[in-house]
Amino acid sequence: MSRYFYIFSAIFFLYFNLSAQPGIGSARSLIKLEFKDIYGLQISHPKVSLEINSIEKFKNGTETPWLNSHLIVTGVQNFEIGIRSTQTNFLNNSEETNISVTNIQVLANLNSKSNSIILKNKTQVLINENNGSIINHINVKYRIPLENTDVFLNHINKTFDTIILYTLIPF
Predict the structure, then answer these.
(1) Which end of the chain has fewer CB atoms within 10 angstroms, the N or the C?
(2) What's the pTM?
(3) How many other C-beta atoms can be found within 10 angstroms of the C-beta atom of residue 139?
(4) CB-based contacts of 126: which residues, under 8 Å, 6+ apart?
(5) What is the per-residue pLDDT across 39-83, written as a single tens digit (0 to 9) for each?
């Protein structure tokens, strides 16, 4: 299920000033269009899985492929995308574990910009843009780096999850 957040406001005034004029006749009109900021954030891949299901992935780390257009931002002004986890540690069967979400690295790229952050339960800027494009497609990759795979040892056949919140912040 995609998540949408839109703020849209448009004001349209049509004003006619009709007055009697000597001669053949004339009329004037004043048209005033005022458009406010338009913003939207859509997540194209609402469920993402990282699997450590082989010796190679324990030895080398694991990552998703680049999720093209994972975040689609609609906006007419500059913006930044904030990211955070809803909790400090992963959940397993709805119960909190002692495995920190900081074991996940999130990479993003947009046009020629790129950034990498370590997931936390505090909002961080994942990426920002100030080119004035109306639609921006942000590619994202999630990974567990090699140095973090050992925390998942001895957790065979378990699934860990967290909810990631993305926030669109105009500036």
Answers:
(1) N
(2) 0.79
(3) 17
(4) 80, 81, 82, 83, 106, 108, 115, 117, 166
(5) 889 999 999 999 888 889 989 999 999 999 999 998 778 899 999
One-letter identity of residue 153: L
* DSSP characters over 88-134: SEEEETTEEEEEEGGG-EEEEEETTEEEEEE--SS-EEEEEE-S--S
> Residue for token digits 């994942």?
126
Residues contacting residue 144 through CB under 8 Å, at least 6 positions apart: 50, 52, 61, 62, 63, 103, 104, 105, 152
Q: How far apart are CA 149 and CA 135, in angstroms?
A: 36
Write out the H or E segment, with its range, that includes residue 10. Answer: strand 10-17
Helix (H) or strand (E) holding 32, with range, is: strand 28-35
